[in-house]
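From the shared-data thread, chain only:
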Amino acid sequence: MSTQAVSAEALAPLDPLYDKVRHVIPDVEWAVHAGFVEQINNLKAQRNAVVLAHNYQTPEIFHCVADITGDSLALARRAADADADVIVMAGVHFMAETVKLLNPSKTVLIPDERAGCSLAESITPEDIRALRAQNPGAPVVTYVNTSAAVKAESDICCTSGNAVEVVESLGAGEVIFLPDEYLANYVAMQTDVKIITWQGHCEVHERFSAEELEQYRVEFDELTIIAHPECPPDVLRAADFVGSTAQMQSYVHRERPRRVLMVTECSMSDNVAAEIRDVEFIRPCNLCPHMKRITLANIQQCLETLRPKIEIDPAVADRARRAVERMLAVKV
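Structure, as tokens:
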């Protein structure tokens, strides 16, 4: 695979794609990305493949090679309807597993198997069985940021975008909510259901602090702060709006604040800024090291080799699939 910059003449057919990201990607960087973009889009046609990209992917992936984009819930819903033989998950491993659960007969690829998640690694199936023993009768709601093996031990999954609706759909007086402690606390404030929590945290969102946000308010006037519910409670209290990545994106599109600070993984700001050019984005840049393992180069490579493939033990997959499908049936 070549990483040589592409000539101006060769770049010309890709101008419509570059127009999408010109606001956030300099010309000199695009000259390197463009060759990969062209080859990936050609390979997608040859393989009857689609690329799914999470909101935390970089703009050249999110806007230039992805066919389906969004947060975990949007990707989970739309993956089930993907009309393709091959699905590439430009995200982290648990997301690729979820896609495979919903598309068991299709080839599902992840460009780098090391793209993990601190939340997914914070809990095991054994932990859930122990919690059930300690809290008999309490159903288990598991955030999608978990392995298929953990989902298989759960009653239903949720995302940050539908967590409250999922919890209330169970009609239970108390639920076990795993693994993100901060999201669980946020849900507890939105419902009368008793929430039993687990001490899992996102390594990106837990680095933010209210003190940091207040300093930004001092530095920038007319600043609107919107935060993801995986952030610590003091951060959520300091924010003007709290929501999932999709809800944050919708907020900026709808409200058009003069200046906005999105308290989440910083590629999210780049991707929204590429679409909304009349809003100034202040970037407190916390990167997810796992998301950044996905690159144009390894997306191209996995389409060429059809590796690495996602495989899930059928006994695990059947139970995990039920938890995901039960989530998708909840009205939001």
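Residues 27-47 form the longest helix (21 residues).
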